[in-house]
Amino acid sequence: MNETELPEAQSRAIAKAVREALARRRISRQALADEARISISTLEKALAGRRPFTLATTIRLEEALGQPLRGEAPSSAPAAARHAPEELGSYSREAVSWIEGRYLTLRPSFGAADAIFAYRTEIAWDAETARLVFREAERLDAPFAQSGSVAVPNQSGMIYLLTNWQGQCRLAVLCRPTIRGEMFGVLTTLHAGRGTQLTPAAAPLALIPERGDDLAYGRVTPDMPAYAGYRRHLGSVCEEAYATFFACPA
Asked: HTH cro/C1-type domain location, by residue (predicted)?
């Protein structure tokens, strides 16, 4: 069965069709997941937009529902929505196209001292909603991969990666790219502690345009070849004053 991920716009259209089918037939998501032979977690995350539908999952849902779900994805935004919403900066695609791409993303590991957590962030234009969106991939903790909208206001000159999932927010604040396309800044998120404990956390963050295929993802430790270069990139956040961290009072 093909595990190809479907485009974001098509995944949203499929999610809408599935939700309508569930409401019309008055069946639960668990019942649909059982009938389609997929996990309820996979179905919930796809319907919430936290991960794209795959072709395999979509075919199984079509078989379970007895109806087609794959229509043509919208090819462009309507004429009235050529700019991002005001709350994201009212930018056009032409004004922010230089941000689009794949980035090696680095931050300190929350679970291992001296280690660096590395993954990929993809930034692309979403024609249906007329905005830049981002999606994380190659994460060691894949269920916690984030996605959301990109704000680029003229006033501050900063770039913001915004995640808002059912009111739970995460924010990355990045300086404009350097001449090499690198972006540095701060990540504010929640750190998962023992059990179900969540603690607000902030950490330096570096987004480096991906070049070549020899990149290391996951938890990168000092004994690994990629560590020294990753450490230099991450160290630039403070050393080059891309962000300031204030110490807690004694």
From this structure: 17-72
Cα-only R_g, the chain: 20
Alpha-helical segments (H) within the chain:
8-25, 29-36, 40-47, 55-65, 93-96, 227-239
Domains of the chain: 8-65 (1.10.260.40), 80-239 (2.40.128.120)
Cβ-contact 12, 128 below 8 angstroms: yes
Q: What is the pLDDT of residues 31-54, one digit of tens each?
A: 888 889 999 988 988 888 888 888
The two structure tokens encoding residue 242: 């891309």
Number of helical (H) and strand (E) elements in the chain, helices listed first = 6, 9
Taking only the tens place, the pLDDT of each residue in 58-80 is 888 988 888 888 765 444 444 44
| 227-234 mean pLDDT | 96
Q: How far is CA 239 from the centre of its chain?
A: 27
Q: What is the pLDDT of residue 102?
A: 94
Which pTM does this prediction carry?
Answer: 0.67
Rounded to whole angstroms, the Cα distance separating 2 from 13 reads: 19
CA distance 105 to 95: 23
CA pair distance 43, 5, nearest whole angstrom: 14
